[in-house]
Design a protein that fits this description.
Family: Belongs to the GST superfamily.
Shape: globular
Strand content: 5-15%
Protein name: Glutathione S-transferase
Helix content: 55-70%
Number of strands: 4
Domain GST C-terminal: 83-219
Domain GST N-terminal: 3-80
Number of domains: 2
CATH class of the largest domain: Mainly Alpha
Radius of gyration: 17 Å
Number of helices: 11
Structural class: alpha+beta
Length: 219
Amino acid sequence: MTSSPTVVGAHMSTFTRTIVMALQHLGVAYEWIDAAPHSDTARQYNPFGKIPSFVTQDGHTIYEALAIRTFIEQKWGNSLSLSGDLAVRVNQWTSVVSDYVFKDIIFGVCKPRFAMEEKQIEEGEIKQRLQGPVEKACHILSVLEGLFSETKGPWLCGAELSWADLYLFPCLADVYSTPEAEAAKRAAPQIWEWFQHFEKLDIAQKTYRNTVAYNRAKI
């Protein structure tokens, strides 16, 4: 048994950042094992090779972000899940981010762009190839804009910070680090304002180093 749980992941991973921000917000000390997706280290903790994984204080390993989130709530409280109707809204947001945002924006726009940049494909061709995926991403963001407009803010589900904010922020940090940022901001201006509010938080600033946005800012 150890005094602190351990997070296994990578700073560039959006879901890893979500879990780390939650622990920091709740004041939970943790240890860190660096593991790239599908690396040998990642597979030691998750047979599918994905990150993050989470090792509890008694040595039990948990993988998949939802399962880790559930454990955190059971161990350190469910304040980030809110309650009543707001809890339903939080789950709706986290489901949307885990499905549509991650699949169609991170894997649909960001990762293809990064791969094409690495191959030194000309910017004009990159934009042409991404035209359809960017249109789809902007549609998703416009839907999120509508969901956000239904709340009284300043957070995605109202007056209190929740898992919804912690899930969405790392994904949009990647998006806003790309040339597609301007289209994303136009599609969802209130979401952009929310993002700027969130990035001032200590948990955002303390988890910024070595993220995709951090590394791209150095280029």
